[in-house]
UniProtKB/TrEMBL annotation:
Region of interest: Disordered: 1-25
Species this chain originates from: Streptomyces scabichelini
Protein name: (2Fe-2S)-binding protein
Keyword Membrane applies: no
Coiled-coil stretches: none
Compositionally biased tracts (Low complexity): 16-25
Length: 220
């Protein structure tokens, strides 16, 4: 096999007397481009709109907020909140009512159930700012005599039937049970299970929970 290179493949000889090339090197090109770009940006900042101050920048980054007035456990509240605040966070963090529990925070476990205008809702999925003028009842306001008064019949039934173990889901179970009774969905154990199915008990006290709801519905 011939190893001879063709004429076009052979590099031309370098003439020592020739003048150096005027084309910029790669390093010179990059340095020049960077410097010019920086000058253009700086000039734009100087000639254009000035940068925002710290207070203006903070105001621009602040989330939208609003005010809501609602009645919670018979007491009127007017609160300024972030528009994204859930009813659950309003109750726990703003109104200091920790009885309503944060479980999945996705509407799947029922631990955060409260009554809004007499209907049960998952407070973690309910925006607080949408409840203007609403009446909210939490586990703290369920007993007719208040925290130091007589218990609600369903609260008594939960104790009598031993319908809880760890107790984390119990406030939501009781609030949902009250709603279930008021809605008239207590015709049978099967109906109670169906209408209480949105409330999860990881301890598995379902039989006793159903029994407590049934007992209360019958007024025994």
């Amino acid at each position: 096999m011939s190893t001879e290179l063709t004429e076009s493949a052979v590099s031309p000889p370098i003439d020592p007397s020739a003048e150096p090339s005027s084309a910029p090197s790669r390093r010179t090109f990059i340095a020049t481009t960077t410097a010019v770009g920086g000058a253009v940006v700086a000039g734009g900042l100087i000639a254009g709109t000035p940068l925002l101050g710290a207070d203006e920048a903070a105001a621009a980054d602040a989330p939208p907020s609003g005010s809501v007035s609602l009645t919670v456990n018979g007491r009127r509240h007017t609160v300024a909140v972030d528009n994204r605040t859930s009813l659950l966070d309003l109750l726990r963090e703003h109104l200091e009512l920790p009885g309503t529990k944060k479980g999945c925070n996705a509407g799947a476990c029922g631990a955060c159930t409260v009554l809004v205008d007499g209907r049960r809702v998952n407070s973690c999925l309910t925006l607080a700012v949408r409840l203007e003028g609403a009446e909210v009842t939490t586990i703290e306001g369920l007993a007719p005599g208040g925290a130091d008064g007589e218990l609600h019949p369903l609260q008594k039934a939960f104790i009598e039937e031993d319908a809880f173990q760890c107790g984390y889901c119990t406030p939501g179970q009781i609030m949902s049970g009250v709603g279930c009774i008021e809605e008239g969905h207590t015709g049978s154990k099967e109906e109670i299970r169906e209408w209480m199915s949105g409330n999860i008990c990881r301890c598995g006290c379902y039989v006793k929970i159903v029994r407590a709801v049934e007992q209360t519905a019958r007024g025994k």
